[in-house]
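REVIEWER CHECKLIST
Item 1: Sequence provided? yes
Item 2: Single chain? yes
Item 3: Sequence as submitted:
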Amino acid sequence: MRRWWAVRGSVMAISVSALFAFQATFRQFPGMEDDPVPVPPDAYEKTEWAFTRLKYPSGRHASVFGDIGSWPTDYPKADRQFVQGVRRLTRIHTRSSEQVVDLDTDEVFNWPWLYAVEVGHWSLTDAECEQMREYLLRGGFFMCDDFHGGGEWSVFLESIRRVFPDRPIVEIDNQDPIFHVLYDLDERVQVPGIQYWYTGRIWEKDGKTPHWRAIYDDRGRVMVAICFNQDNGDAWEWADHPRYPERYASQAYRMGINYIIYAMTH
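Item 4: Structure as written out by the authors:
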């Protein structure tokens, strides 16, 4: 039987101690790291929240790491640097290391917040689409990021439409709680990747307009938060570099933190 979790308002459906018991141990993926950084000394701590990265197949679609696929883009530096911000800016008991999961096992059900990058290259199997749908309908939250232009949007749709063929993808209204749960984010800018350093452009491919889109459940809860034509992962990864503008990094951190708190309270 698959394990359940839920955080609804201030009431947790299972105890924190039970959640800790189900947490998988942090592990590394040697040879798959796009931007290696040292393993934090408290990487194996059990906490109430951890950054969970989706390991997905790229299939026939173009990938940036050959046979490995696109899932490790910015990994693990972006993950570990972002969670340092979560630790400093919130009271969430946050693990210093990420957790990499896939949809081929039930481990994903132990982690209520899931992130994937470069989903303009993913290619989920039918079984993975079914697993993702069940994960989200049970209360899971999925943030996807760093894909650009019409071509990558089409690739993204090919899989997400098999996850939810009957649910629309809509623009998130400025008044939605997800933009206000901690930080008020009415005024948002397009967050660029580090290609900005070399091209002077904040957009990639034909993705000149940023979009914050979502798929909602029947109660009006955001299940899938889609960051299209923007690159929050690069902003997390390069926030410590003097060439990366602070205003982009600051928004990326605030956006990610809002999404975490929303996922834990809705």
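Item 5: Key structural point noted by reviewer: The chain has a mean pLDDT of 90.
Item 6: Recommendation: ____
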